[in-house]
Design brief:
heterodimer, A: Alpha-Beta Plaits, nine-stranded mixed sheet, B: NE0471 N-terminal domain-like, 4 helices, 28% strand
C-alpha cells in the first residue's frame, strides 16, 4: 500500500512540483486513494481544476479503482468546504433522478418509464431515460431505435436522442439477440458506467427504468446516486403486489421516498362488446397503496393500442395523444413532478471537514 | 432522520451530526469499534469481533452513500462501514450503554484501547 502512496506523490510531483506541498493527508485503502488538499478558499475554482486533474492522473495507477480528492481549508472553520457526492460524475448536472421499479417482472415498467419520461418532457422539462435493466433492456425496442451511441470529444458516451429524450440502454451497445450472461460485479460496473461515463448533461429529470427484483442494480443505484424518489408499477394481482411490497420496503430501507404506485393493466375493455373485464383483479394496487400509506398515482388500462404502439417503437403518448392511456400518463407525470418538487427540499446533508 | 450537517472536528477524532437544534457527537474510536461493516459485525451475532486498540484512530474522510448513509474512512484503513442515519441515531442514543459494554468486553477478553 505504501508503494502506491509513494507512487501517487511522485505522480503529483510530475504534474506540478508544488502539488506535493498541498497534500494534507493521503490514504490508500481498498484500491482507493483518499487525498485531502490544503485549499485556498479564495481560489476554489483553481483548486477544483487541480482536484479533477489529480483525480484523473491518480486513477491511472495500476491497482487503483478510484480516487477521491477532498479540498480542505483551515483558515476559517465556519466556511469549511462541503464535499458533494462525487461518485457519479456523469449525472452531476441532473436535478432529479426518479426510479421506476416493480419487484415483479412483466408488469410494464419499461412501457411506463418511456411514456412517463415523454409525458414529463411534454410538461416542459428536459428529460433523460436510463434503462438499468441490464439483463433485459427494452428501451431500444420501445423507441424503435438501435443506433450505436457516439462518443464525445472528452471520450464520454453520448446518449441517443429520440422523441426529445436522452436515452441510454445496454441494448444500444450489444446486438438485440445476444444475452448478457453476467455475474453481479459485471452488472454493477455496467450500471456505474451508464451513470459515470455517459454525458447526460443538464437534465431536469432522469427516469431510471429498473430491472425487476431487489438486487445488485437497485442497491448500486441507491448507493451511487442521490435519488429523488421511486415510482412503483404493479398489476392488480396478488402475485405482483407481494413483490411490489418488497420493492417499497427496499426503497424505505435506503431512504428513497416512494412517490406512489401506478396500477398497470388495471382493466380490459373489450373493443367489440365494450364489456369491462378485470383480468388481473380489481383495484389491487390501489388498495395496496392505501395499506402501505403511499400515494396512488393512477391506473393504466390494458389496451391493444398500448401494446401495438410499444411494439412499433412509437410510444402511445406520442402516437395516440387523445387516448385514455395518454391522458393518464400526463396526469401521472403531473403528480410525479409535483411530488418531487415537494420531496427534494428535504435534501442531502452537508459534509464539513475542518 | 437525515442530519443537516455532518462535521468532522479539526483533529479528526470527533464527528458531529446536526439535526436542527439537536446535535449528536461521537468519537472516531466509538464509531470505529461499532462499525456496521461485516468485517466487524460478521454475518451473525456469534461472528461479531471485538475491535481493540483504537484509542488513537481518526477519520480521514466521509462519503455520502445515496440518500441513506455515510461511509467513514478511518486512518487505520477501515473503509467498509456504511453508517445509515438510523444506525447513527441508535448509536448516539445508546452511547453510554454501548460504551460500557464495550469496555467490559475488552476487559473480559484481555484486550485494551491502546
Amino acid at each position: 500500500m505504501s508503494d502506491i502512496k509513494t507512487l501517487a506523490i511522485e505522480k503529483l510531483n510530475e504534474l506540478n512540483p508544488e502539488y506535493p506541498e498541498l497534500i494534507e493527508d493521503i490514504v490508500v485503502a481498498n484500491k482507493k486513494i483518499y487525498l485531502s488538499l490544503k485549499t485556498d478558499k479564495a481560489k476554489v475554482d483553481k483548486f477544483t481544476k487541480i482536484k479533477l486533474q489529480i483525480e484523473k492522473e491518480l486513477a491511472a495507477i495500476d491497482g487503483i479503482d478510484s480516487v477521491s480528492v477532498s479540498l480542505t481549508s483551515h483558515s476559517d472553520a465556519i466556511q469549511a468546504k462541503a464535499i458533494p457526492q462525487e461518485n457519479a460524475s456523469g449525472v452531476s448536472e441532473v436535478r432529479n433522478i426518479i426510479s421506476v421499479a416493480s419487484g415483479k417482472g412483466g408488469v410494464g415498467k419499461s412501457t411506463t418509464s418511456i411514456n412517463l419520461a415523454i409525458a414529463i418532457n411534454q410538461l416542459g422539462f428536459s428529460v433523460g431515460l436510463l434503462d438499468a435493466d441490464v439483463y433485459g433492456p427494452s428501451i431500444p425496442k420501445l423507441v424503435g431505435d438501435r443506433q450505436k451511441p457516439k462518443k464525445s470529444k472528452a471520450g464520454k458516451i453520448l446518449p441517443i436522442k429520440k422523441y426529445n429524450i436522452s436515452l441510454m440502454s445496454i441494448g444500444f451497445l450489444v446486438p438485440e439477440d445476444s444475452p448478457m450472461i453476467w455475474r453481479g460485479p459485471m452488472v454493477i460496473s455496467a450500471v456505474n458506467q451508464m451513470l459515470n461515463d455517459v454525458e447526460w448533461g443538464k437534465l431536469d429529470y432522469l427516469v431510471v427504468d429498473m430491472p425487476p427484483g431487489t438486487g445488485d442494480v437497485q442497491l448500486t443505484m441507491a448507493q451511487r446516486v442521490p435519488m429523488s424518489g421511486a415510482v412503483i408499477v404493479s398489476t392488480p394481482q396478488d402475485l405482483a403486489l407481494i413483490d411490489a411490497r418488497k420493492g417499497i420496503e427496499m426503497f424505505k430501507k435506503v431512504n428513497i421516498p416512494i412517490l406512489g404506485i401506478i396500477e398497470n393493466m388495471s382493466t380490459f375493455i373489450c373493443p367489440n362488446c365494450k364489456n369491462e373485464s378485470h383480468i388481473f383483479g380489481f383495484e389491487g394496487a390501489k388498495l395496496e397503496a392505501n395499506n402501505q400509506k403511499v400515494d396512488f398515482l393512477g391506473d393504466i388500462p390494458l389496451e391493444i393500442d398500448l401494446r401495438e404502439c410499444s411494439d412499433n417503437g412509437k410510444p402511445i403518448i406520442l402516437s395516440k395523444t387523445d387516448s385514455v392511456v395518454s391522458k393518464k400518463f400526463l396526469e401521472i407525470a403531473k403528480s410525479v413532478t409535483k411530488k418531487v418538487g415537494d420531496e427534494s427540499s428535504s435534501s442531502k446533508p452537508n459534509i464539513i471537514i475542518n | 432522520m437525515i442530519p443537516e450537517n455532518i462535521i468532522l472536528s479539526e483533529n479528526k477524532k470527533e464527528l458531529t451530526l446536526e439535526y436542527g437544534a439537536t446535535k449528536s457527537v461521537m468519537s472516531a474510536e466509538f464509531l470505529r469499534v461499532n462499525s456496521p461493516s461485516a468485517e466487524v459485525k460478521g454475518h451473525s451475532p456469534a461472528q461479531k469481533k471485538t475491535v481493540s486498540g483504537k484509542r488513537a484512530v481518526s477519520i480521514n474522510s466521509i462519503e455520502l452513500v445515496g440518500n441513506y448513509a455515510i461511509k467513514l474512512i478511518f486512518d487505520d484503513g477501515h473503509a467498509t462501514g456504511i453508517y445509515t442515519w438510523q444506525y447513527l441515531q441508535e448509536l448516539f442514543k445508546g452511547k453510554d450503554k454501548i460504551w460500557k459494554d464495550y469496555i467490559s468486553e475488552l476487559r473480559k477478553k484481555g484486550l485494551n484501547r491502546d
